[in-house]
Amino acid sequence: MSRQALGKGLDALIKQTQEVVQMTTAEAAQAVEPTGASVTRIAVDKIVPNRFQPRRVFDEAKLQELAESIKEHGLTQPIVVVYDAGLDKYEIVVGERRFRATQLAGLTEIDAIVHKHLGDKEMCALALIENIQREDLNPIETALGYRNLMSKFYITQTDLASYCGKSKAAISNALRLLDLEPEIQQALQDGLISEGHGRALLMVTDAAKRDMLFKKMYGSKMSVRQAEDAARALMFPVKKAGKGDRPAEVVSFENDLQTALGTKVEVKYGKNMKKGTLVIHYHSLDELDNIAGRLKNKML
What we know:
Elements: H1 8-20, H2 25-30, E1 38-43, E2 47-48, H3 60-73, E3 79-84, E4 89-94, H4 96-104, E5 109-115, H5 120-134, H6 139-153, H7 157-164, H8 168-176, H9 182-189, H10 195-202, H11 207-220, H12 224-235, H13 248-261, E6 265-269, E7 276-280, H14 285-299
Parallel strand pairs: 2-4, 3-5
Antiparallel strand pairs: 1-5, 3-4, 6-7
């Protein structure tokens, strides 16, 4: 199913909700919502979390800080909910962090924008996009949210990039993090290593070597740049010209290019070496962009 097949309804809904979540409570109360949404005060015990909430980790210390702010200043932005007649409850669309902080603050009611008509797919999309725009998700939560949204909408990475305001390379690189081992994914979720460290680990295709680098990276608090260099050293060790091997000048050329481009380079040639092929390896769109940038800089 293409982005166009999703219809203009989701586009309008996303735009509308993006505007609503930026409103103050007073502004939201005066807004006229084309989809029949309205602002009201709802009992906290009548609200349930979003089934499609991409965020899995909530920082308790920051929640407590927000709760103290709500106690002192009130809720500055309403949450967005949809009414579930079957449960006789309001399900959160966006704003679960604010809802949890309100609970911590001991308040019994909360200001909310109520959407009257909202399907599961729209709730999934809005929850993910709102969190991404606020940069509230860790890298694994973001990747899982992307995968969940793509699965429910049957859309391509290109379509998803357009909806989320991200590049296709960013979507692809985020999804690749889900190829990492569970232990490494947990470290990303816990903030022990960054997304950049995760991408560096993906450069190492051998699982045993990747695990070794992960433990070294975590133990020595490597920077992302140091992690990338260590990954390249594992994958592309300096070649040595030995007896009966390829000419020393070819090996030296490959080593120089590998250092300059930060990736594996191979020179393939015929018997007389007058013709051949230069092979430059890359393992992600992000890495390809980086190689292209380095080549452009060398030519300028």
